Amino acid sequence: EELAKLREVAHGQFRSVTIPTLFNPKAGAKGLEEALNELFRQASLHIDAGINLLILSDRGVDRNNAAIPALLAVSGLHHYLIREGKRTKVGLILESGEPREVHHFCTLIGYGCGAINPYLAFETLDDMIRENLLEGVDHYTACKNYVKAATKGIVKVASKIGISTIQSYLGAQIFECVGLQQKVVDQYFTGTATRIEGSDLAAVAEETISRHRLAFPERVEHPQTLEVGGDYQWRNEGEGHLFSPQVIHSLQKAVRTGNYETFKTYSNLVNQQMQQIFTLRGLLELKPQKSIPIEEVESVENILKRFKSGAMSYGSISKEAHESLAIAMNRIGGKSNTGEGGEDPERFTWTNERGDSKNSAIKQVASGRFGVTSLYLTQARELQIKMAQGAKPGEGGQLPGGKVYPWIAKVRHSTPGVGLISPPPHHDIYSIEDLSELIHDLKNSNRAARISVKLVSEVGVGTIAAGVAKAHADVVLISGFDGGTGASPQTSIKHAGLPWELGLAET
Fold first, then answer.
1. Buried b / exposed e along 334-349 (16+ C-beta atoms within 10 A)
2. In angstroms, rounded to a whole number, what is the distance separating the alpha carbons of residues 457 and 476?
3. Contact criterion met (CB below 8 Å) for 81 and 43
4. Phi–psi pair at 127, nearest 5 degrees
5. Shortest CA distance to 313 belongs to which of 329, 331, 328, 325?
6. How far, in Å, CA of 185 to CA of 76, rounded?
7. Among 6, 317, 320, 353, which residue has the least CB neighbours within 10 Å?
8. SS3 assignment for 344-359
9. What is the DSSP letter of 351?
10. What is the rounded distance in angstroms from the CA atom of residue 211 to the CA atom of residue 98?
């Protein structure tokens, strides 16, 4: 209804036109490029004719017409009009079946789209109502709730970077591109940071056409069903995951049986995954060097001292898991990390008949300062200042109220049942001098502990790391986008952060 009003707008100086964003799939990459150029040409002519609202629509998809990827069309047109000096004369509106998640909306807005009509998402809600998957909800309520949730998600993402209004986020393109060819980025996503090469326009067209063929096959030999996806959770025929059930099972079996051959099976599976381009480091081929006598190799005990577990807070994972990690790492001589949720003081002195300890060697100091006391700081071998988290850069930890049980609230010195959200920034750190002061205070609280500062992989992290070193930190930790627990939103885990390889290389 709102889109229909914009189509027929005749108020004052506003005039609108709808431009199709379709191309002939049989023409391949050339057809996609020609369709984009035609889209840009038409938009420019309409602006010259006095049109100031452009509605880009992919309705009309059929066997002979595939949809141009929505972000490619929007961003490409946005930058084309900037180069032509016409961008401020027109507003961009998108009518598309492609966007459905918060990340999709954020990227579209970030690349200049002023309004979005995700019609397929609304039609999907209608279908769910008909199938009784959404009981007691009518079309209006379902769509209203969807829009409300998406809006809250967009505002939350904008707030990560310190932007408080959607108008300020519009066209800001605060993103980094991973996996697109530099030529494509320069042409259609001008000014976006990118540090590695990747798919060209032909590959983008090929992916788009392959999805189109699934919707319009040459011959229908069996009932058509949607692909399982598997993006968020592993599925047998879906997206590949680093930690698949097969990998986890082989690791568990190797540990439980103590069989070296089983462990080799596990390590081979992991190495094969690296070669399947699941990670950037998997693209590297290490040159073999001349082997050295085993006597000259460091002892196992010394090597294990460098092993550290990830920072996962008590509350985002269970007490049993948190304590088991601490015992295991202490047993092998490594270090476990408390995360930002504090630690039960009883663990500092607990031991059993084997001499095991539940005390985590690394104590984290984050923006919320949960559980940070003088006693907590003195029980560490390493104190870690968490400036940001790789799984959700720009966000603090988020523990829903339902997970803040009395025993967790006691450790965090908070109120049971009340959600705990760490501020995205440290409110007492606005400069390298402020960070240096915190490092100085922590060193005075525990002279024996090393001080590490946790940063995330992003463009410019090298400059930040240089400042951290000048602030007299002992260790700089570059955190990648892997991981994420119950305190991290799925949107952040999947779409925020970068591989640690990029951050490490820059640092």
1. bbbbbbbbbbbbebbe
2. 12
3. yes
4. -65, -40
5. 325
6. 9
7. 353
8. CCHHHHCECCCCCECC
9. B
10. 12
Strands (E), 179-320: 193-194, 308-311
Q: Which residue is it, tokens 């790492």?
A: 329
Could you give the residue range(s) of every CATH 3.20.20.70 domain in the chain? 2-215, 297-506
pLDDT in tens, 400-457: 888 899 999 999 999 999 988 878 788 889 899 999 999 999 999 999 999 999 999 9
**Both tokens assigned to 373:** 């006391």
CA pair distance 233, 424, nearest whole angstrom: 27
Q: Which of 88-97, 118-127, 293-302, 476-485 has the lowest mean pLDDT?
A: 476-485
* 416, 405 Cβ separation under 8 angstroms: yes
Spatial distance between the Cα atoms of 357 and 350, rounded to a whole number of angstroms: 6
Q: Which tokens hold the place of 173?
A: 């393109």
Give 248-297 pLDDT, tens digit per residue: 999 999 999 999 999 999 999 888 877 777 888 888 888 888 888 988 89
Q: What is the DSSP letter of 487?
A: T
The separation between the first and the last C-alpha atoms of the chain, rounded to the nearest angstrom, is 51
Q: Label residue 138 left, alpha or beta by phi (over 0 means left) and psi (-120 to 50 means alpha).
A: beta
The kind and range of the H/E element at 56 are strand 53-57
What single-letter amino acid sits at 161?
A: I
Measured between alpha carbons, how far is 174 from 189 in angstroms, rounded to an integer? Answer: 11
Q: Which two tokens stand for residue 137?
A: 């909800």
So what's the pLDDT on residue 224? 66
Contacts of 310 (CB under 8 A, 6+ apart): 337, 483
Residue 1 token pair:
């209804």
Alpha-carbon distance values, 114 to 68, 70, 78, 91, 172 (Å) = 18, 13, 11, 6, 12
CB atoms within 10 A of CB 220: 8
Residue 311 buriedness (CB in 10 A; 0-12 / 13-18 / 19+): buried
For residue 483, CA distances in Å to 144, 222, 365, 368 come to 32, 38, 19, 20
- Are 192 and 171 in contact by the 8 Å Cβ rule? The answer is no
Prediction pTM value: 0.87
HSE-CB for 5 with a 13 A CA cutoff: 3
Domain 2-215 sits in CATH at 3.20.20.70
